[in-house]
């Protein structure tokens, strides 16, 4: 079975007497060590999709299997456990805890797993080294550049050794040089065997991935591999 | 769980520190509540200790007998009295009494005048034996004599506070003062005794018992107190029992009926003091719990603000795997730490206040804070933190992760 398997997922938002179909019957499979970019125009449902994949949000209907586990009927606490163990989130606006240093930010998810202080610190240091931030560990987020902040966020996502890394426009707030650095890091992580799913607006970034999924009005419009000679699947 | 608590405490302290002034204002209610409890407890405890000392110095062998009318009888207009006859009977029929004296308090007016100076004082009619019973010594002049009583002489022995209040000369002997419309010649000045329980024992005027009786008029109405000192070789309890049975007999009280008089020992007085202190503490406790309530509401308010301010942080924590109880604990611990810090500051401030008050009232004993009061204050403020922190913490814990992350 695939790492991720969605069957006919819908997400509806009731806005007064109008219903917004943010996701409208999505079925998709994502395998281990896949490297997927979700693209599409604004409002097409990419973020909604990613939030449901990350168990932050629940679909209105449909089936979702993650790591062979059916996650639709889990309690909020069980979902929190899944987020902690299986998923690493990377956000456009970094979403670091503002009063905690880089080190403490990266240690934070391990607290919810009851990892003791010294092991927690060692694991966080290891993750920060992985993103080349070993010498900035005691800086607060507002003492770091955007690229450095995003690397702290990536370290925080990596530290729990999750099954999937989810990134919603991870370079949206970064300049082109920093974007290249971050994308190189993602490429490396992919080569190391991580499963990465990202949402982006830029073709440049999408081209780093193995597979591009284009969304349109809450549906999958196109789902193609980036290898040039490969077959195209429409609708 | 253990690490969660440690981490929550650490981050609670960090966020309280980060909002230093706001945190201070928030805990002010708790600080004031706890400080006032500790101040009062420190003062009453100090007072109690010193009263105990003074009573034991006084000797536990002096007894005070006074009339006692049960409430029921008071309503029916009856009043029990002690008369000089009762004193005579005790004198005649009870062994082991070293000295005995009547005491008649001025009932109409305790005003006293010298020249153009007027003051109020404790005016008592008594006799020669009061010197022994009450352990009075004169520094100049003489004490009341038996002959003063026999001839109803208009003489007075005064404490030195009265001399000061009336601007009498340093040696007031043979000066005349006016009491209840009569002129009295001062014959003695007592040695100062200092304060007991905040009463100035030197603000006292003693006149002969019979003189007092005559200026009070209607002798049949006279209700006196009797004070006696038990001989050193006699047993206080057996003297008390003997006095009781002699008085019951003389006053025709049937077996099974209650005494219409009471015999007080210094130990009983100590108990009375304890009761009063207990009452004060309870009343004050009531007032203080209102202040703690207000303080608790302040904490709840600031915690609600803090939950709103940190909605996004809560969303982040939930996104990386925080469960409900992680968030709940973090905010609850913050509320408890906040309120216990307030309690701690309150204990220190209250103790300081108690010491300051004690130091500034002359003759007041130094303040002492017993450990139980500190523990109680801290425990109570912690409880307030839990009570008023649970609602904001619950609110934080129940936030939906997506909504919290989207919060601007
Ligand atoms: N909380 C919400 N309430 C109501 N409608 C919502 C909500 N969240 C998203 N939507 C709607 O769902 C649709 C999909 O939104 P989504 O955020 O997934 O788009 P997106 O593809 O991420 O767009 P962008 O590229 O601008 O980030 C939009 O039409 C949006 O208006
Ligand atoms: Mg989006």
Number of domains of chain B: 2
Give the name of the CATH architecture of chain A.
3-Layer(aba) Sandwich
Put simply, the count of helices of chain B is 14
- The computed structural class of chain B is alpha+beta
- What is the H-and-E element order of chain B? HHEHHEEEEHEHEHEEEEEHEHEHHHHH
Rg measurement of chain A, Å: 18 Å
Strand content of chain B: 15-25%
- Poorly predicted spans of chain A: 229-235
Structural class of the helices, strands and pairings of chain A?
alpha/beta
Helix content of chain A: 25-40%
Quaternary structure = heterodimer
Short description:
The complex is a heterodimer of chains A (235) and B (408). With 235 residues, chain A is α/β, with parallel strands linked by helices.
Summary tags:
heterodimer; A: 235 residues; alpha/beta; Rossmann fold; 32% helix; B: 408 residues; alpha+beta; 2 domains; two-stranded antiparallel ribbon; 14 strands; 17% strand; binds adenosine-5'-triphosphate; binds magnesium ion
Description of the structure:
With 235 residues, chain A is of the alpha/beta class. Chain A has a single domain (4-234), classed as Rossmann fold. Chain A has helices at residues 46-53, 76-86, 102-111, 117-130, 146-158, 176-191, 203-206; strands at residues 4-15, 18-30, 35-40, 61-66, 69-70, 87-90, 164-168, 195-199, 211-216, 219-225. In chain A, the strands form two sheets. Chain A has a six-stranded mixed β-sheet, sandwiched between helices. A four-stranded antiparallel β-sheet of chain A has the order 2-1-4-5, covered by helices on one side. In chain A, β4 and β5 form a beta hairpin. The longest helix of chain A is centred in the C-terminal third of the chain and has 16 residues, at 176-191. Chain A starts with a strand and ends in a 10-residue tail after the last strand. Chain B has 408 residues and is α+β, with helices and mostly antiparallel strands. Chain B has two domains: 2-54 and 274-406, no CATH class; 62-264, no CATH class. In chain B, 57% of the residues lie in helices and 17% in strands. Chain B has 14 helices and 14 strands. Chain B has helices at 2-18, 20-58, 71-75, 84-93, 130-133, 146-150, 160-165, 209-216, 236-250, 266-309, 311-319, 324-360, 371-397, 401-406; strands at residues 62-67, 97-105, 111-114, 117-120, 122-126, 138-141, 155-158, 176-179, 182-190, 195-196, 199-200, 204-208, 225-230, 261-264. The longest helix of chain B has 44 residues, at 266-309. Chain B starts with a helix and ends with a helix. The interface between A and B is medium-sized, with 31 and 25 residues. Magnesium ion binds next to α1 of chain A.
